[in-house]
Amino acid sequence: MNRVGIVVFPGSNCEYDAAAAMKALGVTVELVWHSTTDLSDFDGVILPGGFAHGDYLRPGALARFSPVMAAVQRFADEGGPVLGICNGFQVLTEAGLLPGALQKNIGLTFLCQPTTLVVTSNNSVLTSGATIGQELVIPINHFSGSYTCDDETLERLLDNGQVVLRYKDNPNGSLADIAGLANERGNVVGLMPHPERAMSTLLGSADGRVLLESFVAANVAA
Q: What is the pTM assigned to this prediction?
């Protein structure tokens, strides 16, 4: 992967963190405004954290109607690697690129802290370079990060190995401890923790590197 587009919505605030992480891995980065309608020049697409469109109605509910999301859908349909981090994960669920939804944390508290994740599947562009059972310390920073879905969807996610990351000690009430999941094809992944903020032990953890290195190594026709 040589060139990554990072989608910027009004209210995004983690695009520069994501860009810095990609540049540290040798990737050329371009910030893409949400009115963009063509992503074909990119090898990968990231939807970063923040508060897209102010999180009005609910997180991601308005962002899904931005013109860029039709382009993200086409990019994903063609096998392109797509990563949604925190608010980006919420946008992906609202847009139907990933199943389920993110609701307010248990206890209605904003959480900003390191969390330990367990890799539960390497069948995705984010976890292909990780080992099943591997524990990663990655920070979270969210108020609506509790994943939920119906029983039938959960059964399908588990059967297909689409749950790629789980919380070791669930901080937010997320169903089945889900911290990150992929679509059936494995080329679209969303997670609430921030791997782009875990790129150096000087900042507490470098465990995000194995995830983002996997993403960078992903084939466009994954």
A: 0.95
| CATH classification of the domain holding 146 | 3.40.50.880
Whether residue 222 is contained in a domain is answered as no
Q: What CA–CA distance (Å, rounded) separates 50 from 47? A: 10
CB 138 within 8 A of CB 203: no
Domain membership of residue 169 as a residue range: 3-217
Which residue type sits at 185? R
pLDDT given at position 219: 67
- The percentage of residues in the chain with a pLDDT greater than 90, rounded to a whole number, is 92
* Chain segment 30-59, per-residue pLDDT in tens: 999 999 999 999 999 999 999 999 888 888
Are 43 and 5 in contact by the 8 Å Cβ rule? The answer is no
CB 82 within 8 A of CB 123: no
| Helix residue ranges, H only, the chain | 15-24, 68-77, 87-94, 151-159, 208-217
Answer yes or no: is 126 within a domain: yes
pLDDT at residue 151 above 80?
yes
Core vs surface per residue 135-156: b (16+ CB within 10 A) or e: ebbbbbbbbbbbbbbeeeebee
Instruction: Determine the Cα–Cα distance for residues 207 and 139; give it in Å rounded to an integer.
Output: 10
Catalytic residue numbers read: 86, 194, 196
Residue 32 lies in a domain: yes
CA proximity to 148, closest of 135, 140, 157: 157
Q: Please give the tally of structural domains in the chain.
A: 1
